[in-house]
Amino acid sequence: EAGVTQSPTHLIKTRGQQVTLRCSPISGHTSVYWYQQALGLGLQFLLWYDEGEERNRGNFPPRFSGRQFPNYSSELNVNALELEDSALYLCASSYLAGGGADTQYFGPGTRLTVL
Amino acid sequence: SQKIEQNSEALNIQEGKTATLTCNYTNYSPAYLQWYRQDPGRGPVFLLLIRENEKEKRKERLKVTFDTTLKQSLFHITASQPADSATYLCALSKTGRRALTFGSGTRLQVQP
After folding, report:
1. Rounded to whole angstroms, how far apart are CA atoms A113 and B107?
2. DSSP 8-state assignment for residue B31
3. Does the CB of B28 have a partner CB in chain A at under 8 Å?
4. What's residue B21's pLDDT?
5. Cβ-nearest to A42 among B93, B97, B104
6. How far apart are CA B100 and CA B103, in angstroms?
7. Which of A12, A85, B6, B85 is least crowded, fewest Cβ atoms below 10 Å from its Cβ?
8. Pick from A96, A106, A111: which is nearest to B44 by CB?
9. Cα(A62)–Cα(B41) distance, rounded to whole angstroms?
């Protein structure tokens, strides 16, 4: 079974630019989560999509946005990049049947560097 | 505000010993607590999940305890191996709120 995939692996941008990161969940998983992990810090929750809808959002400015497609893949868009946006962006997917705990399976991440 | 604390200092132990990592939390009443392993530059890998009404969970060489009174979870790796060297993250979540809140992780180094 293929795991969560993310593209690109690495990205270098300059301040003020815009970036789009992509994620394909595990087959059968309907939820996609995005997390930001700045160097030396823990994972910070960004966005959660389920069945094509944004379900929850973390404490990030509106220039962080995304969407989920009918095939459950997802994009994360970051506008007006700032230096502090440099981080590893992780995508995770899950399938929660009838409530209960939600184990999330992570992709390898996209390393974004903003110069 | 809710806070999850993991020992930020690296834990260095000898091969064959038991590693014990701690996760403490405040201002939070999680329904579930999960442990993940993360290698440098990689995404976290799920290890174990324990529910609030469970005291202990085991999987092979791994054991997790969950004390909701102390607001603490302990994560044990018995017979540790150099391949166990990684950063271990604890993550909490509530029922119906599916985003995970992660601690900053503890780096484990197992010396051969």
Report:
1. 24
2. S
3. no
4. 96
5. B104
6. 10
7. A12
8. A106
9. 27
Determine the Cα–Cα distance for residues B90 and B64; give it in Å rounded to an integer.
Answer: 11
- Is B102 within 8 Å of B4 (Cβ atoms)? yes
Q: Contacts of residue B42 in chain A, CB cutoff 8 Å?
A: 108-109
Q: Which of A30, A43, A56, A94 to mutate to test the interface with B (most CBs of B within 10 A)?
A: A43
Residue B27, pLDDT score: 86
A41/chain B closest Cα distance in angstroms: 6
Residues of chain A contacting B7 with CB distance shorter than 8 Å:
none
Tell me how far apart the alpha carbons of residues B33 and A112 are, in angstroms, rounded to a whole number: 29
| Side chain identity at residue A21, one-letter code | L
Pick from A34, A28, A48, A32: nearest CA to A97: A28
Look at residue B105 and tell me whether its pLDDT is greater than 60. Answer: yes
What CA dihedral angle connects A94, A97, A99 and A105, to 10 degrees? -20
Which residues, including other chains, have CB under 8 Å from residue B60's CB and lie 6 or more apart? Answer: none
Q: Which residues of B touch A96 (CB under 8 A)?
A: 98
Q: B66, B100, B106: which to substitute to probe chain A, counting the most A Cβ within 10 Å?
A: B100
Which region among A5-9, A106-110, B75-79, B98-102 has the lowest average model confidence (pLDDT)? B98-102
